[in-house]
């Protein structure tokens, strides 16, 4: 039922510059484009957001003891969710920056909301490092280097400090990249809207963009350079996140394969999230001509490829555990395979290594329900991966006497689902108020594909010779 | 310098339907000897800057300078904090442990370079600029949607209201108009 035909055209249907503006721009300008689905989705997200705020309130009132963290498992859901969210963000930057440098034109349809997804995922991720301090209002002087009256500085030799810089740089550059991409589209909305408030707001945000040749010339230089800067940045961010683990001497963490396999895992989870967002949006808003089955096909292939890299990472983890000859590494491996949380390990193997293999089949890639289900499974699998890596490694220590089980509490779960609410709440607001597809790049693509609209016969002569 | 008064002319603006028409018109205008050619389009058109004879390489240099300053900032911050202001022996590591300082230097480099790209681009483009004479062109709201505009600006040496208007009218444009710097100026 849900199988759509696959073709090689990046934009289907009879499209003109005007029709692209209308199908995308009207989502921001015309409230009638948003039907029951939008209200239901943002309603659910809003409820979860409230759950998040209540949980945070309770956390701040009671302290981090409301979480299941203990000693030796000092890191648990806070860091799992942080890594999970920041990983999801990576696909957005990959799509917007790396695919731009590789001249993959198909990115144009999906880069805008992939970038928005990056931004909101980073916002969700940032909640955890702040909240896990227990007192986020003093986290500023623990994390940021500034001259203070105590005359102390942060410890720059610690990967945790690197993380602060990597994530804050990543968030800032993502905002810049996203906003720069939005400027011309905001100008289009400013010129299209009939609404006075809309014109003022979009006019303000578009900075007076007028699409002049000189503007475009420098704009393109800046955009390309930003892409060039974001590419090493995105690779460095998850590398540094993985250093939080790999630089330590905890069994199961001290492995050189962590950086590449974390980056691949990030892209893997991120593409799953892009698909989870793109599939409903294109169906509900009639954007099937702009986000075609070809796009979905390619995204599935990237997911499959990065999934295989992740699977290779799991194999190497197991191999190192054995090859190191270190009894602690070996016992950790046994704990993963056969310990009380072994269901988490084997579900992770199923979710990340076995389930995505169905995407080898072209028929599966064309079936929306299959792609959607695989994306959900992958998202769960990547969360489980962090569960397996983080608390499961910490429960076991060098001294068997200090081994202790870890059990998450209800607040751990409400905070996690709460950030999902925060993410989707921001995402649906974005879908309501800003153009979800990069309109000017789609017009550029339409022009390049040689599908320029036939010279219209209706040359409007109105307004000629006003002088 | 003369203050811009409402009576000044921005230039002559012609409206076209396609990027190709715009490029060929820009070429012709340049061959005619005009220097202050400006074009407005809803998306970047490759070859247009060349056709109109515009070249600008400042943004990449600003980005490069941003990167250099960012790297200097990152390393200086860490050196000052860890060696000069608060020397702390951690596990016998040297106070200036460069490999450990590399990640933050790297991130600072990228951060500053990115700000260089964005602020450099906006600054050179003189944005934000809420008002500009060209907005008085009839139908100009379509410049961000689906129409393509070529302007010959009044500060061109060869500019002459009647002459330039006649020249642009030979180009099969939808509409050619003389545009003033402010909306009330033509009354």
How are the SSEs placed, and which strands pair?
The complex is a heterodimer of chains A (467) and B (187).
Chain A: H1 17-29, H2 36-62, H3 77-101, H4 111-131, H5 136-143, H6 159-192, H7 196-205, H8 213-246, H9 258-284, H10 293-323, H11 327-338, H12 342-354, H13 362-366, H14 368-389, H15 391-394, H16 410-433, H17 439-448
Helix pairs in contact in A: 1-6, 1-17, 2-16, 3-4, 3-8, 3-9, 3-14, 4-6, 4-16, 6-7, 6-8, 8-9, 9-10, 9-14, 10-11, 11-12, 12-14
Chain B: E1 9-16, H1 19-31, E2 37-40, H2 48-52, H3 58-85, H4 98-124, E3 148-153, H5 161-169, E4 175-180
Main attributes of the structure:
heterodimer, A: 467 residues, mainly alpha, globular, disordered C terminus, B: 187 residues, alpha+beta, 2 domains, four-stranded antiparallel β-sheet, 4 strands, 44% helix, rod-shaped
Q: Could you explain how this protein is built, in words?
A:
The complex is a heterodimer of chains A (467) and B (187). Chain A has a domain at 24-145 and 154-254 and 270-299 and 409-448. The longest helix of chain A is centred in the middle third of the chain and has 34 residues, at 159-192. The radius of gyration of chain A is 24 Å and the shape is globular. Chain A has 467 residues and is mostly helical. Residues 451-467 of chain A have low confidence and may be disordered. Chain A has helices spanning 17-29, 36-62, 77-101, 111-131, 136-143, 159-192, 196-205, 213-246, 258-284, 293-323, 327-338, 342-354, 362-366, 368-389, 391-394, 410-433, 439-448. By secondary structure, chain B is an alpha+beta fold. Chain B folds into two domains: 9-55 and 132-186, no CATH class; 58-124, no CATH class. In chain B, 44% of the residues lie in helices and 13% in strands. Chain B has helices at 19-31, 48-52, 58-85, 98-124, 161-169; strands spanning 9-16, 37-40, 148-153, 175-180. Chain B has a four-stranded antiparallel beta sheet, covered by helices on one side. The longest helix of chain B is centred in the middle third of the chain and has 28 residues, at 58-85. Classes of the chains: A mainly alpha (467), B alpha+beta (187).
